[in-house]
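Lecture notes, structural biology module. Today: joint structure prediction for complexes of three components.
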Amino acid sequence: MGSITLDGVRKTFGSVNVIPNVNLEIDDGSFVVFVGPSGCGKSTLLRLIAGLEDISDGRILIDGRDVTNVPPAKRGLSMVFQSYALYPHMSVRGNIGFGLKMAGLPKAEIDRKVEGAASILNLTPYLDRKPRELSGGQRQRVAIGRAIVREPEGFLFDEPLSNLDAALRVNMRLEIAKLQKDLATTAVYVTHDQVEAMTMADKIVVLNAGNVEQYGTPLELYERPANLFVAGFIGSPRMNFIGGRIASAHGAATIGIRPEHLRVAREEGGQGEGWSGVISVAEHLGSDTFLYVDAGEAGTLTARVIGELGLNEGGRVTLKPDPAHIHRFDQTGKAIRP
Amino acid sequence: MSTRQTRVLGRVLTAPSVGLLFVWMIVPLAMTIYFSTLRYNLLNPGTEDFIGLENYVYFLTDPAFLASLRNTLVLVGSVLLITVVLGTGVALLIDQPIFGRNIVRLLVIAPFFVMPTVSALVWKNLLMHPVSGLFAWIATSLGLRPIDWFAEMPLFSIILIVSWQWLPFASLILLTALQSLDEEQKEAAEMDGAKAFSTFFYITLPHLARPITVVILIETIFLLTVFAEIFVTTGGGPGLQTTNIAFLIYSQALIQYDVGGASAGGLVAVVLANIVAMFLVRMVGKNLET
Amino acid sequence: MARRTTTTHAVVSTGAAWLVGLIIFFPILWMILASFKTELEAFATPPSFLFFEWTTENYGIVQERSDYMHHAMNSLTIAGGSVLIAMLFAIPAAYAMAFAPTERTRGTLLWMLSTKMMPPVGVLVPIYLVFRDLGLLDTRTGLIIVLCLGNLPIVIWMLFTYFKEIPKDILEAARMDGATILKELAFVLTPMAVPGIASTLLLNFILAWNEAFWTLNLSTSNAAPLTVFIASYSSPEGLFWAKLSAASTLAIAPILILGWFSQKQLVRGLTFGAVK
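The predicted structure, tokenised, for the full assembly:
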């Protein structure tokens, strides 16, 4: 009941083509994350779906209904804003219930629904406080409460966690994901944080300069990036890219190996392909070690080692790629599939 | 946030104000331009003739114009100098850690809220009167000859009154600006070994440059058209000594009923004000993100 | 202010600041004192500062003269009316420009500002003649119209800068919540903008109350507000200083009190947001 379809959607601001042409099919009940660097158009795309901006061309369908010219409130969507956008002069109760009040529901029913939403979000003790008397995490919950109480066909989240501190962010991430599964409501979530994207999404849309670079499950994106952009954007630390002679030997313009797919050996040479070099920086995280290695012709490579190997700056190592995990890309940056 | 709906709505909501202001600006201005090309005196109705630029020639070569232009410039320049210099001093003083700052600020800001006719008459009668004014008494007590302010230095008297009215404005704006000066910046300067004097010159004054410009521009716009203070004290005299351009045009229009000449003068005033306005609009515009 | 300060520094600057404050305020104080003197004492040399016979007879006389109340009512009607009407036009315009800006909004705003910079003398002649022909000279309606138009740019600008500070997100949230434009204005924007609207009203009321170009030129008796009434004391033979002082005190007292409340907004309003 809450599928969202973008059909040839285009958005221009003046002469700037922000969204050149997007076609997208978001399944009912799925959690879809738009991810991309800042300025890639992900927030604009979300606002187009919300109806807060007009599309310049194309159509938007929600549940098969053409909503291109339908005002925001009538699209059956609700939105959680980055700034939370709570009404400062209303209590938590007033904030959560505002949409229901606008819809003309009787007061008793509004109260019942608001209290229901509040108990799901652990906000019951705060119902009569004003937003300024709440902590950041609590404000975030109120914003979510305001979104769920209307029982929409879809949730829109615009970087909702970017104003929270790191620990709280992990917490809320889990809560939002769980809530969405419980309510089985379609959700579109915008973030620039790929960890959020990977952990929360059923499917990820990677956007770059207003174009969809790839649309797939988190693991598809990780294992089979469609192009250099996606390969470089998904995964942390970043995938290593090697060009030149080494790439040509693999029949590609560029090859990519993720840091976790480089085996680190102390000895020189040995069997199979390998690049030796000097460790320029070693970051010891305890559970992992990241090595930055100047590997001559291969350039600076990042390698990720589980646990501690006792390797330090200045040490010489050989990095051996796992042949099964070498990604090959052609001149245009597109992945070469066998 | 812009959808077709909101844009259409925006135009509908803005239109009445834009329309009103457009009419308010264009119609009288067009009439002024039209009148300025006529021989048109209210005392001789029905004799209006087109005379081209003759009114301008007459107005601009009239010795009264040169005198009033000089008076206007002296008035504006002196008041600006006095208010900006004293205003900076007052602002710095109130910015110090003083007891009862709020009350002092109230005392300083008060003259701005006094209507021009009241301040002019209070100064003229209660303070500057050559026999019974407070200044005369102070002078006599000190064994000096009391000054007959409006006879001996009429323009300076006006300058004094107008400066008193505008000093609060300059002080308040500069104080507001001072209070927005980052405390850490001053502390950093202190850590760098700057003494109070150099902190003022290298940190505070550059920070005030912008607000001072704003004060100068805004005051100029109002000072170019000082009217009530002259109207109730000197009536432009003695002779032309306190006639500024605004008063000159007023007396041409509503005392001599020379509509054509006053209109030509009015346009000259508009041009003068626009030169200042251009700078101010540019300055404010830079600050404006829509 | 968490800076270290010495006691001497604090004492010296406190003394200096109070002295400067009192000097600046003195003319007003002197006028208030004079209003409680008899005409004879007000005019006496040497002047008496506090040890004179305090009397309120001047206030009585000024109140009794029904024309004082008449002019005070004119001031109230003209200042109040012009500001309220300006608000009616300005609130929708400022709302639109703050929340639905177009490419032309910036230009429109600056153009509005520039109309405020046109010197009134530039259009004195045509306004006077038009008012004469329409029978608006010396009418409150006429002055309300002129002051309303004169202050409209400042009203719009002040409201605009206040509205700009309300996060767009909140209005968009209201829109997502299904509020129509009218409900959005009533339930979300207006409650949030009340402080800004109030201080705009206040400052522009003060400006209109003290306006002394148009009022002096376009009114003589019927519609004359206090500015014009006070100016009538300027005749050289009039030596009614105590009564002038009492009338002046009454004319500025309410504005002084309102003004003290609005001093923060004053900076913002008069610098068009260029200094906050």
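Point to remember: Chain A has two domains: 4-233, 240-329.
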